[in-house]
Every structure is written in structure tokens, then in C-alpha cells.
Write a structure and sequence with these properties.
heterotrimer, A mainly alpha (290), B alpha/beta (235), C mainly alpha (316), A: 290 residues, mainly alpha, two-stranded antiparallel sheet, 2 strands, 3% strand, globular, B: two-stranded antiparallel sheet, binds adenosine-5'-triphosphate, binds magnesium ion
Amino acid sequence: MYTVFVQTIINGLLLGGVYAAYSAGFSLIFGVMGVVNLAHGELIMLGAFTSYWLFAYFNLDPYLSAPFAMILLFLFGYVVQKYIINRVIGQPHIMSYILTFGLHLMIANIAIKMWTQDFRSITTSYSGANAAIWGLNIPLARLVTFMVALLVTWVLWFFLMRTETGRAIRATAQDKEVARLMGVDIRNIYAITFGLGAAITGLSGSVMSPFVIISPEMGLEYTIIAFCVVVLGGMGYMPGALVGGLVLGVAQSLAATYLNAGVSVAITFIILFIMLVICPKGILGKGSVA
Amino acid sequence: MKFGALAAVQMVSFSLNPGEILGMIGPNGAGKTTLLNCVIGIHKPTSGKIFLNQIDITGMKPHKICRMGLAKTSQIMEPFMAMTVFENVLVGALHGGRMRMRPATEQTEKVIELVGLKQYAYKLSGSIPVPARRRLELARALASGANILLLDENMAGLNPHEIDEALEILKKIRNSGKSLIVIEHIMRVVMGISDRIIVLNYGSKIAEGFPEEVVNDETVIKAYLGGKLSSLKVA
Amino acid sequence: MNFKIDRIILIIFLGITAALAFLPNFVESEYLLRLITVVIFWIGIAGCWNMMSGYTGYIDFGPVVYFGIGSYVVAIAMTKYGIPFFPSLFISGLISGSVAFLVGIPTLRLKGAYFAIATFAFAEAMKQIALEFDRTFSVSFFQGSDGITLPISGHDNSFFFYCVLPVTFLVVLAHYYIEHSKFGYGLKAIKEAETAAEISGVNTTANKLGAYVSSAFFLGLFGAIEAYWITYITPSDVFNVQKTVQMVIMTLLGGMGTFLGPVVGATFLTLISESLGARFVEYYLIMIGGIIIVAILIMPNGIIGSLKIRKKLRFI
Ligand SMILES: Nc1ncnc2c1ncn2[C@@H]1O[C@H](COP(=O)(O)OP(=O)(O)OP(=O)(O)O)[C@@H](O)[C@H]1O
Ligand SMILES: [Mg+2]
């Protein structure tokens, strides 16, 4: 009884860590530009595929290919923002949804065209490895992802608070016009922000690749979870993604153990809906309310 | 009224008599806009009460208050951009004035005539110049048939000639039996038109009285010390 | 205020609808009749979305939930309670509308992205509830992923044509009403500047709720008709987010908040997917993605919206 409960909580926390890892970028992009990026899951997919191909052709370990995924996705995100999304900034927010939804359709379907709809996975020596402590199982690959989530949150926080670019990003997020007057190149900052968001999202895709199913159509599901996580934690509030991810992970894990797996999805959306209605600023009350 | 820890307006009490024009002045950030926004229900006051003809309207929804005869123009102009000037005013008549389409259309025509917006009537309100937008704000409030109009810096950004025109309109409105509260930084306007003036500073009322009384008031002069002092004396 | 031209447009619209009513007598091909019915069906559904989101600017990302509720109400009413189709259809609309009323009150206070996400979450939650309810509470009501099979209607395509036509007619008529009524001016004012609307006397809460509930009512009817038409429903089908996407894209291509936007957008997209979808299955979704991106970048107001601006037309 007791072991089951503790195991459930541990599973939940590790799941939540994974959620947090891939939601941070979503929160960053929303927080700075107000763009709800419906192509978020595709960034994860691209990160995972980067690792997949490097593993398939060069037998490169996913943890080693992670930097490549980051660089690739930074460039991708930078270009997408600079040449496409920047053109609808300042228009009604629906424009950015539709635009990123169009991107989602294109990226996912081009990926299907190139790589087929097959499910793929990367089997490393540690893919199924567990650490067993006091009768509890701790899947190592997830633990690593959890660490990455912590690291990403911390580095991002540090970056935003302490660096020149970080300050420019924060200034832009607070007041675009004032930032412009202060000499910040808004379009470039937006492109960098999106690139950064894409890079950490790609990184998460990469470190998740040893234990998730990789397919061109995997994205949408992740986008939806990222939505929930970010709303729970407070939209646009960076550490919120971590808190939101953990809360959601534990809630789902409890529901899956004590009710059934399907209910855990229902619970996700019920929590999301109720949260928005009663407290749109998130659990910590620090999100921005547009 | 508090925003977080900031008390934007506190312990202010004032009244408006029928047919009166009440001027409201005070340095930037004094809380004039906030005060009137409390009156029309945009902000819910954290404490205190507001009465309209002995009826307590504190905490009522703005549209209710508007229909009871209290309409305000906004300092930051907010026209319904994608609508024509005519349609903007029509919204005030239909909803604020609770009228059916036909009488509302007639009312709208009358109001547009009164404020002199005829030449812009069928232009998109997003495309007209600032002075016309100021009048549009006024027209929309008037169209609701409100007996009390609250004008928040409705002459900001106008040149002297335009101000004279606007003053003429205000006088016409007053003569039709309506009461007004006029927030204005332009002293010539406030002094010239107000029956009474109240002065706000740091969210508190620091003076109240006839225009001549107020300009000579010690505390008022102190509050305006610096650039604005001269403009006070000129009036 | 060009009431004369507007009247003419109304008369043309009534004429077209009347002419359409005779269509099944002339169209021999079952395929063609079906295609026309599908086009009219989508015009109606996209219109429901436009009625709410196009006019108020509140982006509803979960309209499909009312469609799905309509489908389920009609299925349960017919199979469990043996109520005939037409009364069940009406009940579907009523229940969809009532749910929208209850959900709208808390949700319509949210703004921007928050409203969009909340509506999306609600729709997904309902889908999951329909999927898991029976298993969780050990009952047989929604029948989970097994779905519900409705009584076979035995009607031909023209029956459904006559079901869809009047509902779409009402939806388009509602657009005309919105364009010319106090209610509609209230909605448009909310879209442009909600606080200004409120202080000008618009009961913003009631007006938004009115639009939301009417949109849900009609969606419920469409959901019910579709369920009876295809006779088999599952939560994943009737609550499919793809339907929401389609409504949004159709309206956007045609022009949000315009009278003819949904008509043009739905016709255009349905015909495109009919002609391209079959021939270029592989590239179809890539192309749709591309069309969306290009459309947003070069024509953010949609076909009708752009026309309106360019030709300075007030009402179309
Ligand atoms: N929504 C708000 N949230 C927080 N603070 C606010 C808000 N609105 C106003 N304030 C603050 O309340 C104070 C009073 O502002 P208010 O706009 O009422 O001044 P005002 O007298 O109208 O000034 P002005 O002459 O510049 O229009 C200011 O310090 C302002 O910064
Ligand atoms: Mg002010």
C-alpha cells in the first residue's frame, strides 16, 4: 500500500519533470511575445528526430546529440520568428494561433512525407534501466530528464536576469514600445527569444528520445500538455512551468493508479478548465493575465 | 480606491448639483480619472459609497450606471475602430439609451449634428483626426441620453480655436439641462466654464469652491508649485 | 447606413435559399447532392463559430463540444428513450444551449488566450468524460470508445439536405440580424473595445452570453443531424478538435465578423478538399498548412474582409 503510493508519487514527479522540461520554452515564448505556439510539439518532435537520426547513422548517444538538436532548433526558431511570426505581432492574437497552427500542419506533414508515419524508438543501454531503492523503482532516463528540467529552468532564469540579452528580452516583454525607445531591436529580440524557446524545447525532445515513441505525429499531444502545464504554473512565468509540470505529473499519476489511465487525461483537462476559470494566474498566482 | 498597496484616491467626498458644471483639477497622477472611474463603476471602490439621486450605485456594473444617466468620456480615446462614427454613436443610443433602432437612429443624427461631426459621420472612427475623436467620445456619451456627463480631459490635444468650439458645445449641453463634471488641465477651460471646482492631489481633495476661491488657495498653489503656478494665475 | 442595399442582399439570399429548396428535384447525381449538402452543412457550422468569435472577438477553441453534445443527446434520446428524431433534434439544441449558458458565465470573463484555452480544455474534458464515464462509474450511458449506433434512418440524401438547409438558413439569417440589430452592434462594440462598450451602456456579459448560447444551440442541431446521418458516433469523432480547426479556418479565410465570410470560406475549403484531398492525399495537409500561413500573411481579414476594406463596403 505504502510502497504503491510512494512509487506513484515518484512516477508523478518524474513525469512532471519531463513535462516541465518541454514546457519551459512554451512559457518563454508566450511570456515575451504573447504567442501561443501551436507548433510547440513539432519542436519536440524535431529535437527527438535529430537525436534519432544521429543515433541511427552514427550511433551517437542521445545525450551527446542534444547540443546539435539545440543548435538546429535555435536556428529554426530564429528563422521562423524572424520571417513569419514577426509579421503578425501586434495583430489580434488569433492570427498567431492560426499561423502557428499552419506551421504545425506543415511541419508534421512534411515530416510524415520524409520519414513516414512509423513509430520509432531509440534503444540505449540505459533506456529501460531502473535504480531500485527500498523497493522503489526509479527509471534513470526520466531522472536525467528531470535534472535537465531543473537545469534549464535555472539557466534560463539566470540568463534572463543577469545577461544583457536577457534584460532586453525582459524589457521587451514588459513594454514593447518603451523597449523600442530604449534602442532594443524588437524584431531581433523576438527572433532570439523564439530561437531560445525552440532550442530548450529541442533539447527536451532530445533527452526524452531514449524513452518516448518518436513519430512525426507525436507533436500535438505534447503541445496540449504544455498548454496545461503552463496554465497551471502561470502563463509566462518561467519557474511556473516547473511547478505546473510537477503538479500535473503527480495528479495524473495518482489518477492513473487509483482510477484508470483514461481518467487521468480527463482530469488533466478538468483541472485546466477549472484552473483557468477560478485562477487564471496559475497556482503561484504569478502568471500574466493578458 | 486602492491598486494593490497604492491608495489612488482616498477620503474624497463631493457632490454634484443638478444643472451644474463641476470642474476637477489636480496634477498628473492625482487620481482624477480613478475617482470618476469609481463613480461609473469601472473600478469597484475598496471603501466608500456613491449615490445617484439618493440611490446607492456603488459596485453596480458600468452599463447599468450608464443607463441610469451617468456617462463618461475616456481620457485615452477608445472608439470602436472598425465602425463608422455614426455607428459608434448609435451604440450609445441603442444600449445606453435603451432605444429601438429607429428612434436611436434619429437620436444619433441629432447628437452628431450637435457636436458637429456631420462631415465624418460615415468615416471609420479609426481614420478620423484626434479632435474629431474627442468629439466622438462626447457624442457617444451624449447619445445615451445621460443627464450627467463626466468628461475626462476631453479637450486634451486641441488647438485654441478647437477649444473654443468645444466650449460652445459644452455650453449648449449645459443649457439643455444636463450636469457635467469636467476634468481638464487647461485652466482657461476649467476657470471659464465651471460653477464650482474641486482640486485633487495625491488622491485627496485639497480644495473645493468657486473658481476664484480655488486659485487663491494656499494649498492649491503649493500643489501646483513650479511650472503650473503661472498658468493658474493667468486665469 | 445603406439599408436599401442591405435589403437587396437579404432578398437575394432568400431567393437563393428558396431556389435551393427545389434542388433535390433536379440533381440526379447522389454524389453531387451529397457534396452540396456537405457544403451547406459547413457553411452553417462555420457560421456558428463566426456568430460568436467573429463578431465578439472572443476566440472559441472548443465549439466542437456543443456539436458533440448535440450528437450524444440525439443518440441517447433516440436509443435509450425511443424519442423520434425531430423532437430529439430540438432537445439537442436546447441542451447544447443550456450547457453553453452554464459554461459561458464563468468562461466569458476570461480574455484573450485564456478564453481560447479554457474553451479548448472544456471541449477536451467533455470528450474524455464521454470516453471514460461508463468505465469509471460502471454504467452504460455514453458507451465509451465503443460508440453508439443510432437507429438506421432509412432516409435518402435529400432528407438530410432538407434537415441541413433550414438550419444553415437560420444561421445565415442570424448573421443578417447581427449586422442590423442592437444586439449585433453590442457584439461589434465588445470586439472593438470592451470597456468602452460597457460604459456606453452595453450589457457586455449578457450580449456575449447571448452570442455564445445561440452559437451552441445551432451547433447542437448540426451535431444531432450529423449523428443521425452517419448513424454511428464515438467521442473521438464528434468531439474531434479537427472540426474546430475547420470552422476556424473556413471563417478566417472567408472573413471573420462578416456576413458572407463563412459562406465563402466554407464553400472554398470544402470544394478544395473535395478536389485536392482525393487526388493529392499525401500533400493535402501540407498544402492546407501553406494556404493558412500565406492567407494570414497576405490577407489577414479574409476574402470578404479584404473586399470590404478595399471597396469600402459596409455590409456583406
Ligand atoms: N489600473 C491601475 N493599476 C495601478 N495603478 C493605477 C491604475 N490606474 C491608475 N493608477 C495609479 O493611480 C494614480 C492615479 O491615477 P489617475 O489616472 O487617476 O490620475 P489622474 O489624476 O487622472 O492623472 P492625469 O492627469 O495624468 O490623467 C496614479 O499614480 C496611477 O499610476
Ligand atoms: Mg486622468
